[in-house]
Amino acid sequence: MDKELDWGNLSFGYIPTDYNVRCYFRDGKWGEIEVSQSEEVNLHIAATCLHYGQEIFEGLKAFRGKDGKIRIFRLEENARRLQESAKGILMEPLPEEKFREMVVKAVELNERFVPPYGSGASLYIRPIELGISAQVGVKPAKEYLFMILVTPVGPYFKTGFKPTNICIMRQYDRVAPNGTGMWKVGGNYAASLTAGEHAHELGYSAVLYLDPKEKKYLDECGPANFMAIKNGVYITPASDSILPSITNKSLMQLAEDMGIKVERRHITVDELADIDEAAAVGTAAVASPVGEIDDLDTGKKYVVSKNGEPGPITTRLYETLNAIRLGEIEDRHGWCTIVE
Ligand SMILES: *Cc1c(COP(=O)(O)O)cnc(C)c1O
Questions:
Q1: I need a surface site. Which of 6, 19, 169, 322 has the fewest CB within 10 A?
Q2: pTM for the structure as a whole
Q3: 184 annotated active-site
Q4: What CATH number is associated with residue 46?
């Protein structure tokens, strides 16, 4: 264990670790896994990732459990989603087995950075794939680099698991209809920075985007999916322009396990008047409860949390998912890969 790190006070930033792992796709095949101690990447000046945004990524976490073992949450799902993102922007899909091997290796090599059980912190795993061949014409690259860096991150909620406010701003879209919204493409994040900063300046934690075509239905909440509880039912938007969140998928399964009905469907803005709980869901926070949703175009304010506390169903789902990741309760669905 690294004595110098203050596990309870880590931010969601970047702390150097000992190693990263890399693999190149060249001459039509993926090569051997390479272990690197360098924090830098050597790229050709004309690499497609630099000019035309051929870049995709993933995000997952490893935890030290109650039993001292390290658990990586749902890595197969991340492997598949990376393949979908790759196909989406004509990059080379990485075989699932290679992904697994590299994630496990990156965690094992940096084992001393996996925060202790009870600290609330975890080891964030960031896989990334880049188009690296030199090409000035607009075409997909022939060569790719896939790599994984890991870095310890603090508990998402410094001030505790408390609701924050979000807003609707119709002047911004994160993605286009029939665009790249369903893939984890770096460019989607670039496209969301202006809106995100604007929302932060106004005191909101995130933008709740509407569907980019009709601006009628809820889409997602910045870099997280949106879910709500309405009359005891778990509702979450069905949309082709949102990223299929693995956290959302897991929470839907847990809700069903608890006998809560789940509906993936269109949700109109007006429906926000009738919801009892809401949260932004994703790997970073699992569920970030929503206090109020302000529609800045119509001036309507939808107060979701009347007492300033997260709703009971959101809380139960959040605690259950956390308990699985920490090995506190049985992993009935086989979601965790145990490293040691
Ligand atoms: C990564 C991401 C999410 C959350 O997905 P998880 O698999 O739950 O971490 C949601 N929306 C967007 C746009 C994302 O990029």
A1: 6
A2: 0.96
A3: yes
A4: 3.30.470.10
